[in-house]
Specification:
By secondary structure, the chain is α/β, with parallel strands linked by helices. It is built from 6 helices and 7 strands; from the N terminus they run αβααβαβαββββα.
Length: 158
Amino acid sequence: RTTQEIFGGKKVVLFALPGAFTPTCTSNHLPRYEVLYDKFKAKGVSDIICLSVNDAFVMYQWGQHIGAKNVMLLPDGNGEFTRRMGMLVDKANKGFGMRSWRYSMLVDDGKIVKIFKEPEFGDNATVDPFVVSDADTMLAYLTGTKSEGVAKPRAFVG
C-alpha cells in the first residue's frame, strides 16, 4: 500500500516502536492502543497503525500472539518509511540493528498534525524512553485534556 492509500482522506494515528515481541512494546505500547480503540474512533480517528522495522511475518505472528484486532500492524521491513521520517536509529548496542525510535503521530489527510517523539533520540541510546508516544497521551491530545501519563503495563509474555 502507498502512503496515500494509508493516510489520504482520513484521520490516522500511527505509533512506531522498536520491535515486535519486545517487553514495553508487548506489555503496553500496542495493547493500550487496542484497549482505547473505541475512544479514538469516537474522536474521528479512522485507523490506528503500529509501525515497526520488522518483516511482515514477524508482525503477523506478534499480532496473533497479542490478539490485536483493531490496530493495523504495518511492517517497515527495510526501514525506508522510518528513515524518511528521520526516526531510524542504530540499536546495535542492544543487538537490534537499525530500528525505529519510539514516537506517535496524528495524520489528517496525509498531513502530520501532531507528533510525540520520545526524548533522548539517537543511535545506540542507553535508554528506551516511553513517556509521550503512549495511547493515553495521544488520546488526551485529541480530547484537549492533560494526559495522566503512561498506563500500567500488562504482564509481559514474550
